[in-house]
Amino acid sequence: MSDIYRVIYAPLAYLDLRDIYAYIALDLESPDAAQNQIDRIQDQVSTLEFMPYRHAVVDWEPWRSQEVHRLPVNRYVVFYTIDEPIRLVTVIRVVYSGRNLLALAARDS
User: Fold this and answer.
1) 6-108 classified as CATH 3.30.2310.20
2) Which InterPro entries does its entry note (predicted)?
3) In a 10 Å sphere around its CB, with 0-12 CB exposed, 13-18 middle and 19+ buried, how is residue 68 labelled?
4) I need a surface site. Which of 13, 46, 57, 77 has the fewest CB within 10 A?
């Protein structure tokens, strides 16, 4: 069982999920699709309990130095860090893949 990591969401990641849901449910008027998308994202995030290193570290600064990993889920990207000594995965952001990800990383760091 020592190969299992605990997965948590940072506050910004929770806000991201809320915003994704609100956009799809309210702006696009599709609450079922919104819930399905959130479920897909959360299902993929839950797989990070095992082998979280299987997803690549981003190749831009400042997140590369912070070893931020990238997990694509449909048209969204989950960014997360791994704290190996305590076997903890922290989801730091969940964003639409069409956003300016470099600017996001620079602003969040």
Assistant:
1) yes
2) RelE/ParE_toxin, RelE/ParE_toxin_dom_sf
3) buried
4) 46
